[in-house]
Amino acid sequence: MMRIAIRILSLLAVLFLLACAGSALVARKESAAITSPTPVKISDEKSTTDFDGERAFAHVKAQVDFGPRSAGSEALEKTRQYILRELNSYGLKTTLDQFTPLTPKGKLKMANIIAELPGESPEIIVIASHYDTKLFTEFTFLGANDGGSSTGALLEIARVMASARPVKTRLTYQFVFFDGEEAICREWSQCLDGKDNTYGSRYMVERLKKTKQLNLYRAMILLDMVGDKNLEILKEDESSRWLVESIWGTARRIGFNEQFPNRSHTITDDHIHFLEAGVPAVDLIDFDYSDDRGDFWHTKEDTLDKLSPQSLKIVGDVVILSLPVIESQIR
Ligand SMILES: [Zn+2]
Q1: Number of domains, the chain
Q2: Which of 49, 84, 167, 210 is surrounded by the fewest CB atoms within 10 Å?
Q3: For residue 313, what is the domain's CATH number?
Q4: Cα dihedral 266, 269, 271, 272 sign
Q5: Separation in Å, CA 51 to CA 66, 280, 289, 298, 311
Q6: Is pLDDT above 60 for 75?
Q7: Domain containing 109: what range?
Q8: For a pLDDT cut of 70, what percent of the chain falls above it?
Q9: Separation of CA 325 and ligand 1 centre (Å)
Q10: Residue 146 CA to ligand 1 centre (angstroms)
Q11: What's the whole-model pTM score?
Q12: pLDDT band at 3; cut points 50, 70, 90
């Protein structure tokens, strides 16, 4: 994923800006920073689910144990088989959606993994993560958080939803594991006219367009870098507002305001292809992955010790408990 700009506006900063200028730009930033979510009443006011943070964490460890998992690598194939085994064991129907895009390294075999949980309606909500890790040759990049955490959380969300139906869902769910999110070149937009990234999500949206299935897709929730011990997921500016407010409203209702604060940033990630195709989408990403020693993102420091099962559970619970709120807004 690429960070365009972190825009963290405290209420004070907004007030300062408002005091200094009355422009439309300021008004837009103000709405991003201080608009409160529309309260949504749901009948089932649960505050937790069967999502097991330790189980999700064990999935992250299993991936890290395979080693660096860049697109086309043997370790990624092992990861793919692991994900498929898990999903099949939950009783979900799985599809391996293979494709062979041209990359700066030539043609690379990639595959998205899709597991489906049928609902009363054929309309679909996607919950997604990328499972590849960024290619580095100069150091061992384990991607515990970047690639590993969201994949572990998504497996556990799939298990919980497939087994217990902890919340009543009407729509069909697809749990989608994207290949090739990371750029092959060092920088996100360095190669292939800026298309050397998000291979899996770009391919999936193109396929849905070609097969005229895109209209079934009503929402997409993307998870990325969700395991940091110091979890803080900001509202992503490009994401669909109603999805953001549904999720942040749920987080606030169950007591996780601190982990889902009312501040925003702008991130380019797998959700953009869905947004560009007209599918509402939201990116849940904690991009502040650092401590006083520095930033762990895309470094050899992206290791298991920076993560916690509790953070994974918070994200899992918030996502699962948001679904009735989201569904209530899909007619
Ligand atoms: Zn990354």
Answers
A1: 1
A2: 210
A3: 3.40.630.10
A4: positive
A5: 24, 25, 23, 28, 11
A6: yes
A7: 2-327
A8: 85
A9: 30
A10: 5
A11: 0.88
A12: low
